[in-house]
Design goal:
Layout lengths: L3 E2 H6 L8 E7 L1 E2 L6 E2 L2 E2 L1 E2 L4 E15 L6 E4 L8 E2 L6 E3 H10 L6 E5 L3 E2 L4 E2 L5 E9 L2 E9 L4 E7 L3 E7 L7 H6 L8 E2 L9 E11 L7 E4 L5 E4 L12 E3 H7 L5 E7 L20 E7 L4 E8 L6 E5 L5 E4 L3 E4 H7 L6 E5 L21 E11 L5 E10 L14 E5 L3 E6 L9 H7 L4 E7 L14 E9 L3 E5 L6 E4 L7 E4 L16 E4 L1 H8 L2 H4 L11 H25 L19 H13 L13 H15 L1
Antiparallel strand pairs: 1-21, 2-7, 2-21, 3-6, 4-5, 7-8, 7-19, 9-18, 10-17, 11-14, 11-17, 12-13, 14-15, 15-16, 19-20, 22-38, 23-24, 23-38, 24-36, 25-26, 25-35, 26-39, 27-34, 28-33, 29-30, 29-33, 30-31, 31-32, 34-35, 36-37
Length: about 625
Amino acid sequence: MEPVSLQDFVCALDPASLPRVLRVCSGVYFQGSIYEISGNECCLSTGDLIKVTHVRLQKVVCENPGTGQTTELAPNFQGHFSSLTGPQSYGTLEELVYAATQSSKLLPIHFMSTHRITTKARVVPEEQPLKLEAVEMHKGTCCARCVLDSGAQQVLLHLPLSQKGPFWKLEPGPPRTLLQVLQDPALKDALLTCSAFPWRSLTLMPQYEVEAIMHLRRTIVKIPSTLEVDVEDVTASSQHIHFIQPLLLSEALARGGPFPLATEILEVPEGSPSFLSPWLNSLQKGQRLCLHGVASPPWRFLASTRGRKVPRHFMISGAYRGKLRRRPREFPTAYDLLGASQPGQPLRVVTTKDCEGDELENLGFASLAVGDRLEVLGSGQALGQHEKDIDVLVCQRLGEQSGEDEEVEDQEQILLPLYFSGGFVEELSDARRYSLQDLTAQFSLPCEVKVVAKDPRHPADPLPSFPGLQLEEKILEPFLVVSLDSDPEVCFEIPPRWLDLTVAEVEELPGQPSGPLPTATVEELTEAFYYRLRKLPAFESQAPPPRPPKSKGLSEQKQQMSKEKGVKSSQVSKLQEPPLLPKLGTKSLPKVTQDSSNLYSEVLGRKKGHRPAVPITEDSDDEHDYEEILEQFSKTL
């Protein structure tokens, strides 16, 4: 096939022959490195192969060849078109008949008039097709015997050859719809007429959208047929060519198969790893995988280790078959106790921290000591500070003897505000071994457990080696079961939401296991990915614990301490100020006639001696102090 423009190829294409493989013979490039405009492919290189899978009519441009005026028609346009044999019109019927006989064209011929024709028998509307069957004499006048097809019946008319037009010759056949005209190759670029337009003639230029597959393009490529590119049909010589179409794991999950699906990794998403598993290093470009389908069940549990300085985090599949035993739960606040209590399941705890009732700002709240046994009854309200109702936890204080059938009559009922920060440990005597499904069905999360028997299908199960685990959250997320081509026995589960690999379908992989797949049911998570999961909207909807009110006593105590500090600082400043001496005149000083060296020695001697401390009080008489100093000074002299 010789290269043709894409528009000509699409217009002559038979939709029943799809798909067709085309080679681009002359590429097109739009300025500005624009690769796609409005979702359409706008850059094709010479030599590219495209596999056309579908052609869709977008619109039809209708043009008046005389004036160049254009308008757009929708694909569902309801008008009808008739084909003109040429651009020439005839002024009378005689000219039309003469032109037909000169071209050796036999009667009958089809024609129409662009003006209304009025006869005694009938009025012929403008642009109404007529069939001229013969020329004969009618009532002494040479007339053209014409047939008007009105649909229900055919009307015979005798029009004189002197009847004025203009008249246009038409191709034989009834008027056609828009799609019928576009599907007829003989009417390509033909002059048409349509009663819906005031133009004598028009041409139709269809515009299509070509959907095609290209190498390494994940989505269907959409190419406008008006793109100025030449193509060549190479379908016959390209039967062996396989177009690689990238596929995301999320897309494979959404379309639901078919599974198993043999694939090859084209691209691995960038970012920090989510799992600390050995199979994660195998997910490299070029690695072949087999997608076996959706993992069942679809839920997972987040768990963290207990009893370690640096906790480790795991995601446990709902298909985990290990055995678990409950461990006593620890509750830091009364709010946690209320959240853990369930109707019909008594919750008994032992306090691990002393607390006086005065610390709770209300004498109605009980004091707790280490070792006190409590049974949670429910929630309530009590009068707190500032005479406001606050939410409280209602508990029953139990005796020292523990037992399931312990009588609680005449026991003390105590109230604890929900913001109370103490320490409680669950009193537990349950030694049963639970499966993961039974445990989570009977008890609410979070739940403290100890794995006492590992999963028999998972020999390297790490959970039994830890002294305790806390099952924290339940996640409902679809996973895909995947195995490696290099080692079909290594099966694992990938969440496409957080590890969306780009793969391509390949031929079926040999050697895949036919029985149940040995899938790992425990995956260790990185710390960053663990906290990312805890920030999911399902977890963010949980209500935070209540904030404790500001302590009134503590604020008053701080104010009192600030006042005392102010008084002390003022007293210290007064002690540090030197005593003021009165100004002495020269007349009051005694005359010194002797040697002053003895005086200097005596004054130094008195300074070295210990002077008795005089307490400074607010009522002390300053004048008396001055007189005493003057007396001592005179004695010294």
